[in-house]
User: Which sequence fits this backbone?
């Protein structure tokens, strides 16, 4: 992970260069979307001291001297009481997972979150920002749906290239798997995610009603003009 901590403009160190070379050898010249997943290093676990120092640096601009000093004292109490015990638990979790944060972050930040999804979590797309390709909303919506489902096909065939830092260091692509065919089922305290192997329809919300609109006929994607009808 050395490349992540280098200052901008500095030459890449020997270890990151060696890692880049291994990636090129094992991933090949034309890697597919998920071909690098198994060679990604585990998310590094910072030490307790490092975590506390980063926390104190983060809150320093927010507090006056008196409030900051109280925070420093509380951080020291945490370190000398339950801090090391929690750090050991976290270390065991780090040993057994490639990313010790993902499942907790998803569950407690997203799936237990009760703030409005549309403005806080959901992604969205626009067909154009500075121009208006067509006056009919159905035509524009049909083109967006068609383009999105063509992109889904590219993902399923792994034709989308994996993200690479410095054109050589692969980044995790696992979230692409749930970009489509995935739904969040509401729960009383915690929602849960369901992912389907395939889906041939979209859900359309219009005037307080939901509609199920099929996008395929005999396993063939409908053209934009057909979707518009």
Assistant:
């Amino acid at each position: 992970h050395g490349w992540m901590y280098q200052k901008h403009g500095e030459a890449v160190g020997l270890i990151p260069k060696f890692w880049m070379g291994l990636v090129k050898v094992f991933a090949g010249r034309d890697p597919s979307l998920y071909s690098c997943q198994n060679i990604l290093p585990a998310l590094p676990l910072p030490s307790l001291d490092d975590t506390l120092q980063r926390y104190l640096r983060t809150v320093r601009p927010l507090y006056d001297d008196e409030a900051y000093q109280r925070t420093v004292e509380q951080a020291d109490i945490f370190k000398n009481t339950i801090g090391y015990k929690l750090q050991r638990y976290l270390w065991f979790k780090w040993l057994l997972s490639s990313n010790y944060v993902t499942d907790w972050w998803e569950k407690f930040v997203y799936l237990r979150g009760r703030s409005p999804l549309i403005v806080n979590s959901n992604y969205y797309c626009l067909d154009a920002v500075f121009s208006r390709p067509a006056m009919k909303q159905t035509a524009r919506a049909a083109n967006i749906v068609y383009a999105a489902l063509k992109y889904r096909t590219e993902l399923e065939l792994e034709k989308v290239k994996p993200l690479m830092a410095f054109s050589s260091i692969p980044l995790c692509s696992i979230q692409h798997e749930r970009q489509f065919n995935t739904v969040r089922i509401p729960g009383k305290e915690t929602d849960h995610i369901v992912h389907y192997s395939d889906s041939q329809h979209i859900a359309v919300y219009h005037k307080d009603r939901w509609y199920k609109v099929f996008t395929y006929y005999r396993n063939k994607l409908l053209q934009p003009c057909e979707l518009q009808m």
Observations:
- Helices lie at 14-27, 48-59, 65-96, 102-111, 117-120, 137-156, 224-228.
